[in-house]
């Protein structure tokens, strides 16, 4: 039996609907949204004494159910199909005396002005607004004008809809321009398999007298999980918010039926501010054999550790899911702008939402475990936040690492998953004569001032490799003597500080384009200038170009550790201009003949990376590369002369000799930092 129209225009035809309802018979046809799902929203806006008009009623049971539960009895139902009106009169006439069914076109209604307190529309607008042709839009305008005419001031037009973008935009624009208050409710799902995957929405348009002039529009959305509406600043933002919820519903439907071939990422936002509160990644492990207890788990990433390889990369999360032994693992990252009430609070907040991401085949009433490292949510304390004209918004925060160590980090919020600079904090030491804290005393608050910066510890693996590259200078068995080192890119200052402190005869010049970073490094990362350490606030491109003209062959080592502000390029370090051939020639000019140029390269674009390497090979006859395991970083050691060529074994021996020279009695040294390990894995390009 063919019930679908031959064209969208037939949805507005009385002949089509007469044929539809004759062929369908007495069985009620619900476009979408059963009464139990719609009732919580309708109950807010329909009062028992209201006079209610239902436009395009069809043979839906909605009016009958509203009547039977006592929500409202004075209900007038209209439709353009004579067949369905006679059918409904027979079905309800004797049992519901206060409710009526009338054959009437909603575009030309016979009711007097301001006759109703509520107009209810379940799918009628969606059926009429099938396209955006001029004739269709004219009918919709006529429909809205008639609804506005028959509604009293303070009355509500309730429209149940799937909220296609053009339908929602048209309704919201029309009524908000008329001065009405517009609120969009998402209808809570019953959890049963529904006819439509997309969620159902109810537009609530409340009539106010139009105020002359430009009165502010009141646009709101009420997601299904909350009663308090969220104010939207524009029609476009409201339409986008609805679209986000539709995409989420489609995603949940897809991953509830089939395993995820690729990791799925989504943000759950704070109800009050609208800012991201949780970032979720859904990771499926096909290799895990499912049993009753290992279908599904949630893993809470401790605060401040979301940038680590295991939690911050696809490969790391895949390894985490496999080692946890669950078929589907949802990792949850916590955002620094938000406050959390411990693991129990997070579990209570997320338990309902994460079940929407459950895998296919999850047994009914299965308890889903919440996992974490050490069973807690970690510690993150924001020490400082500000905005730089060059680097944008940034934060300095202290986080608890794996174990008892604390670290200070600099994060640029334009790329919040990347740690820009990091330093380990020393444990606070008691002052002379100060007694140790007794066990029964109150523990220090996470907001207490931390210990000093541990300048002996290089947190970043690429910094360790860059320092190890200095073994290319000097003799094979000796610490390089007096050194002139240029570092482009300050960050928190840990790289130039380490070179300054451990190479006692090194004179370090640092070039930093952003004066805010010098303030951050000085105030928060223990950086200081002196006779052997000078910072120049300048563009690295201009500074090197000037040196190439005025002071060639000046530096033993030039180190580039400078990030790109342009996130659209597949290379985040350095900016592309720093690896163009004319500029690299200038870098070569300021190096001494036996010097070394050390470059931190972070490039995800394979073609661009190969182009950069080719340019480097054209300029520097000798080129070594050291990949940083688990990271995108690759450290390149470039020398202007091919005569100093060493194989990896020789480089390892030179690195061991350098490390022996740097390890002086009374000077702290991180035992995990083995220079030889940094260089034995190099490739000669």
TrEMBL record:
The keyword Methyltransferase applies. One of its GO terms (molecular function) is methyltransferase activity. Gene3D superfamilies: Vaccinia Virus protein VP39 (3.40.50.150). Keywords: Methyltransferase, Multifunctional enzyme, Transferase. It holds the Pfam family Spermine_synth. One of its GO terms (biological process) is methylation. Residues 425-450 are annotated as: Disordered. Residues 434-444 have a biased composition (Basic residues). One of its GO terms (cellular component) is cytoplasm. InterPro entries: Lys/N-term_MeTrsfase_sf, Methyltranfer_dom, SAM-dependent_MTases_sf. Residues 50-172 form the Methyltransferase domain. The keyword Transferase applies. NCBIfam families: MFS_SpdSyn (NF037959). Belongs to the methyltransferase superfamily. This is eEF1A lysine and N-terminal methyltransferase. It comes from Pardalotus punctatus (spotted pardalote). The gene is Mettl13.
């Amino acid at each position: 039996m063919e019930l679908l129209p031959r064209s969208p225009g037939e949805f507005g035809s009385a002949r089509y609907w007469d044929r539809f309802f004759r062929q369908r018979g007495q069985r009620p046809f619900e476009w979408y949204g059963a009464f139990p799902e719609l009732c919580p929203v309708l109950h807010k806006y329909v009062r028992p004494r209201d006079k209610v008009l239902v436009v395009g009623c069809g043979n839906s049971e909605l009016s009958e159910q509203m009547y039977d539960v006592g929500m409202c009895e004075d209900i007038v139902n209209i439709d353009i199909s004579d067949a369905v009106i006679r059918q409904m009169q027979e079905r309800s006439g004797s049992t519901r005396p206060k409710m009526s069914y009338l054959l009437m076109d909603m575009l030309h209604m016979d009711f007097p002005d301001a006759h109703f307190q509520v107009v209810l529309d379940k799918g009628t607008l969606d059926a009429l607004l099938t396209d955006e042709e001029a004739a269709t839009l004219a009918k919709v305008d006529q429909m809205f004008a008639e609804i506005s005419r028959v509604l009293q001031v303070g009355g509500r037009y309730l429209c149940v809809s799937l909220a296609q973008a053009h339908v929602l935009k048209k309704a919201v624009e029309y009524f908000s321009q008329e001065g009405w208050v517009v609120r969009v409710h998402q209808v809570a799902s019953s959890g049963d398999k529904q006819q439509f995957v997309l969620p159902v929405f109810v537009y609530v348009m409340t009539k106010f007298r139009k105020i002359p002039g430009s009165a502010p529009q009141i646009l709101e959305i009420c997601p299904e999980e909350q009663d308090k509406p969220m104010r939207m600043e524009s029609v476009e933002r409201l339409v986008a918010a609805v679209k986000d919820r539709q995409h989420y519903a489609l995603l949940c439907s897809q991953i509830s039926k089939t395993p995820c071939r690729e990791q799925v990422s989504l943000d759950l936002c704070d109800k009050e501010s609208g800012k991201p509160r949780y970032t979720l990644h859904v990771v499926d492990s096909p290799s895990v054999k499912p049993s009753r207890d290992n279908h599904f788990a949630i893993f809470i990433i401790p605060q401040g550790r979301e940038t680590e390889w295991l939690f911050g990369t696809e490969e790391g999360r895949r390894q985490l899911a496999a080692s946890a032994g669950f078929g589907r693992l949802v990792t949850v990252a916590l955002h620094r702008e938000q406050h959390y009430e411990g693991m129990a609070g997070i579990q209570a907040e997320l338990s309902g939402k994460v079940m929407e991401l459950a895998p296919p085949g999850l047994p009914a009433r299965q308890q889903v475990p919440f996992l974490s490292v050490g069973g807690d949510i970690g510690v993150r304390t924001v020490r400082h936040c500000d905005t730089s004209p060059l680097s944008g918004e940034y934060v300095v925060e202290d986080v608890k690492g794996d174990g008892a160590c604390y670290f200070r980090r600099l994060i640029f919020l334009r790329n919040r998953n990347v740690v820009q600079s990091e330093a380990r904090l020393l444990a606070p030491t008691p002052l002379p004569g100060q007694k140790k804290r007794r066990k029964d005393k109150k523990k220090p608050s996470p907001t207490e001032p931390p210990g000093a910066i541990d300048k002996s510890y290089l947190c970043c693996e690429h910094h360790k490799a860059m320092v190890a590259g200095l073994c290319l200078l000097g003799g094979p068995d000796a610490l390089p003597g007096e050194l002139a080192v240029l570092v482009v890119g300050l960050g928190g200052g840990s790289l130039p500080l380490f070179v300054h402190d451990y190479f006692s005869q090194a004179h370090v010049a640092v070039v930093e384009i952003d004066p805010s970073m010098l303030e951050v490094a000085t105030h928060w990362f223990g950086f200081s200038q002196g006779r052997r350490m000078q910072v120049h606030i300048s563009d690295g491109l201009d500074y090197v170009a000037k040196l190439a003209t005025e002071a060639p062959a000046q530096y033993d080592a030039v180190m580039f550790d400078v990030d790109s502000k342009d996130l659209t390029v597949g290379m985040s370090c350095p900016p592309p201009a720093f690896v163009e051939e004319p500029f690299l020639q200038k870098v070569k000019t300021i190096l001494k003949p036996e010097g070394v140029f050390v470059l931190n390269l972070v490039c995800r674009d394979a073609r661009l990376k190969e182009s950069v390497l080719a340019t480097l090979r054209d300029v520097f006859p000798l080129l070594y590369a050291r990949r940083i395991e688990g990271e995108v970083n690759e450290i390149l050691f470039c020398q202007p002369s091919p005569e100093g060529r060493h194989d990896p074994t020789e480089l390892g021996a030179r690195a061991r000799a350098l490390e022996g020279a740097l390890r002086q009695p009374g000077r702290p040294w991180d035992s995990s930092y083995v220079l030889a390990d940094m260089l034995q894995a190099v490739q000669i390009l």
